[in-house]
Amino acid sequence: MDTCMLGDFLGSHQERLRSAIATLAGRYDYVSVLGSDSSGVAFRVSPQERRVADSSWSERGFVFRVQQAGRIVEHAFNVLPSGDLAAAVAARIDSQLADGPAARVYPPLPDEPAKAGFFATVGQHPLTADPALVLDRLAAARAGLMEQSPEIVFSSANAEFVQVRKIFISPRRDLAQAYVWGQAYLITVAKRGDDTRENYQPFSGRKGLELLDELPSAVAALAKETVELLSAEKPVPGEYEIIADPDVTGLIAHEAFGHGVEMDMFVKGRALAPDYLGKSVASPIVDMYDGAAAADQCGSFLFDDEGTFGTTTKIIDQGILVAGISDLQSAASLGTRPTGNGRRQAFDHKTYARMTNTYIAPGKDTLEAMVASIKRGYLLQKMSSGMEDPKNWGIQLVLTIGREIVDGKLTGRMVSPVVCSGYVPELLSSISMISAAVELGGSGACGKGYKEFAKVSSGGPYIKARMRLG
Amino acid sequence: MLETIKDIIVKSGRASEYRISQRRKSGLEWYFVKDKLDSARDVETTLYDVTVYVDGLAAADGADGRTRGECTVLVQPGSAAAEISAIIGRALDTAAGMKNAWFPLPKPSAWQPIQPASRFDGLTPLQAMEAVRAALYRHDGLDGASINSLEIFLSCQRQRLVTSTGVDVAWSSWVGFSEFVVNAGKRGQDEVELYADLRFADLDEAQLSEATRRQLAAARDRLVAVPTPALSGLPLLLAGKLAADVYEYWFENAQAMAVYEKRAAFGPGDDVAAGGGDGDLLNLRAVPTLAGSPLGAPYDLTGFALKPVDLIRDNQVVGLVAASKYAHYLKLPATGAIQLFELGGGRTLQAELRQRDHLEVLTFSDFFVDSTTGDFGGEIRLGYLVRDGRRQPVYGGAVTGNLVENRGRLLLSSEREGTPMALAPTCCLLPAVSVTPGG
Question: CB–CB of A47 and B33 under 8 A?
């Protein structure tokens, strides 16, 4: 086991940043700085080619945040000025406060005292490993895929590991954290005549190279599934009983309700959720959570990008909407306690209220009982994309696989792709069975609209519900 | 800094070739709720991407026995020389361990690409932001529809690229982006919202204000929309960026990398209509830059000076977008990695296409086009059902289809318009789609 460290760069600048914060605290109502020095590496093995590059999640820089007379402005940069840091930051902040359009005024941002550090351990540290050995392991998995069927015409094996290192300093808070997350994908393309089908298997976690141990056992099933997709038909549009696998359950939780309870959307009047707090929004067997402290997955951390400790938020309690998730600014505006969900894509991006680890809690049913209970429907697997609509509570999920169920049995027939649409409360209220085991996945990224990508995880158990498929 | 990186690579004596990219960004960001500034940010960053190439010999991979490994790393500004040496050393070790087939890097070109001019040139950042803000808010309140929230990002980005083959080029561009959400109706009763975003590189105030005006008008239509009914046999009409997303399927499949990896739907010499259909002929051309688009560049990442290249002529594939590596692997002419495209117009005026019975979708929840499978679709946030000369706004339900099934049957408007990705027919009609009713 290796322990993740803060590193020389942030360590060497901490005192200078503390000094600048102390100076600026006398000038502004609120001031803080987030420093990031995250580095990562991405590997790809494709036909006749191997690639290694630094991860696009790598970042190093600082963002100073100031509140003055209720206004909030930031200055982000990645070259520390050589002279008086506080004066250089103040010049950029003051020019923004002096100019520009009429601004909203926010209640004071909180700055409660705290001093803490979190330095995670990792099985095999990915940034000190020999890249050639990583590529060899990916190449073996890829070769295994190609051996499974002549109809598989392309495959690639990809892995990415990032060591996140951050510090947060304000007049009363001094925090540091370092941890690693990893993700990997096996990707396949199969062709038969004009028909081309694509499939993938994701892997993720707060893991180092030990994540790659999971690849070999997935190869045969992925190849078989990809070839099966060549025989898939298009779904006949209509409403069906469905079983969502844990990945798809997570996508439902994330898109159907996760985005809808991001409380910066409340501030903008962009969400229906505030009107439903304390009211039923789902079947009474549904509990839903989000939180950096709620699970150990890619959305876990000690503190968010505003220096708020990660928490566990129960969003839905027995079908009743009980809470949202917030950043500092939305919590200040709404008069609620921040939940540790203020996150940035990187130091040079804005903070928004964002999800972390989002999931539906386990129930008591079995997958077998769910399948047996369905007259005609589908087992939905392999999420492709999803989109929220917090104002109108519409939902779109695009999935790669729907496995047909008729008279309580899987028929072996498949439909693809599957576009699921519907009205969120109807979907969540239709959940009638929930299985016992929860699985979370954290590959990919979550966007706010079509930008501001954040590392999150989502998941849950198998759930049975009704959805419109097309 | 760039010179320091270069010196460290050269002095290592281990790099067969190298490429250093320096990107400086200076930008302002304004975030509005209603018409009030919610928060503001300024961003100043400099980034260095460094790729080192290490050649070797191998029995199998290289056509002539030569191999080339490459590794790309980020070098952060302000890094000490020792840290840069360690990063470069790691990159060289990694590149030396890879034995991909050898390929050449571009050499300096006599061709001098021209970057489109921008009306942001000469303005201060504050003047530029204020001009964008004023244009976007010009129609706020139109017929009772209003802007709920709006974000503006505007930056000037300067890029310099230096390679071991003698390329040393620099260019700058304006990169603008706005995301806006509009509402119509009364909160707590029938209020609806629509989302849109916009990329721009030029201060075209008419285009900026038209983007929000269209969305405000659409929000009013969404208020009176009815659930999408069950439909069969009606073609789908897509316009603007959604149409460009469809056209991009052919552009993505005309990439040498996709052909090399055997993922492409067609290859050089193929008929993209497979001989059938009564649709318009496709004439596709890759272009490095488009007026008003922030997505293009005069050079690719390896320093290749980019020129327009014909890809599909009257449905026949006549060329591929081929960066030096894949051009060498496939024995094709290198074009550089061109990012944008032009598609020729069709035989029918837009007005004539719009007169036919059809379903037009103006806004999807999240429109997707899979460039590998050809699948496309999405949930309908706002559409228009045009039947028997009547136009009814609709919402809900979904559209799905496959572009292989629409092969040779696509009808294109003769008029073209610019989007950030393409200059292409303003709208298109796709005959083979499936509609899931809403409500």
Answer: no
CATH architecture of A2-229: 2-Layer Sandwich (3.30)
Domain residues of chain A, as ranges?
2-229, 238-469
Tokens of B33: 């709720």
Q: Chain B: nearest CA to A153, how far in angstroms?
A: 6
Q: How far apart are CA A160 and CA A212, in angstroms?
A: 10
Look up residue A12 and give its two tokens: 């060497």
- As beta bridge partners, residue B396 has none
B contacts of A382 (beta carbons < 8 Å): none
Predicted-assembly ipTM surpassing the 0.85 threshold: yes
Cβ contact A268–B397 (<8 Å):
no
Please name which of B419, B390, B383, B77 lies closest in space to residue B245, comparing C-alpha atoms.
B419
Interface test mutation site (partner B, options A82, A233, A267, A419, max chain B beta carbons within 10 A): A419
d(CA A258, CA A325) in angstroms, rounded, equals: 9
Residues in A 222-261 with any Cβ partner in B closer than 8 A: 234, 237-238
Segment holding B40, helix H or strand E: strand B36-57
- Which single residue is written with the structure tokens 């439902």? A252
* CB < 8 Å to A77, chain B: 43-45
A386 at B interface, C-beta within 8 A: yes
Peptide bond into A202 cis (omega under 30): no
CB count in 10 Å sphere of residue A128: 10
Q: Which of B293, B296, B410 is nearest to B353 (CA)?
A: B410
Query: Phi, psi at residue B310, to the nearest 5°?
Result: -70, 135
**Which residue type occupies B338?**
I
A466 at B interface, C-beta within 8 A: no
Q: Give whole-number Cα distances, B277 to A194, B97, B432, in Å.
A: 16, 50, 12
pTM of the model: 0.95
Q: What are A58's two structure tokens?
A: 């790598």
Residue B124's contacts (CB-CB under 8 Å, 6 or more residues apart) are: none
A262 contacts chain B (CB < 8 A):
no
To the nearest whole Å, the CA of A347 is away from the closest chain B CA by 10
- Which domains does chain B carry? 2-223 (3.30.2290.10), 227-439 (no CATH)
Strands (E), A245-375: 288-290, 313-317, 320-321, 342-343, 352-353, 357-360
Measured between CB atoms, which of B40, B76, B374 is closest to A60? B76
Shortest Cα–Cα distance, A364 to chain B (Å): 32
State the smallest CA–CA distance between residue A456 and chain B in angstroms. Answer: 20
Asked whether the beta carbons of B367 and B379 are under 8 A apart, the reply is no
Q: What is the pLDDT along chain A (470 residues), one digit of tens a residue?
A: 889 999 999 999 999 999 999 999 999 999 999 999 999 999 999 988 999 999 999 999 999 999 999 999 999 999 999 999 999 999 999 999 998 899 999 999 999 999 999 999 999 999 999 999 999 999 999 999 999 999 999 999 999 999 999 999 999 999 999 999 999 999 999 999 989 999 999 999 999 999 999 999 999 999 999 999 999 999 999 999 999 999 999 999 998 889 999 999 999 999 989 999 999 999 999 999 999 999 999 999 999 999 999 999 999 999 999 999 999 999 999 999 999 999 999 999 999 999 999 999 999 999 999 999 999 999 999 998 888 787 888 888 999 999 999 999 999 999 999 999 888 889 999 999 999 999 999 998 999 988 999 999 999 999 999 999 99
The answer to whether the CB atoms of A196 and B33 lie below 8 A apart is no
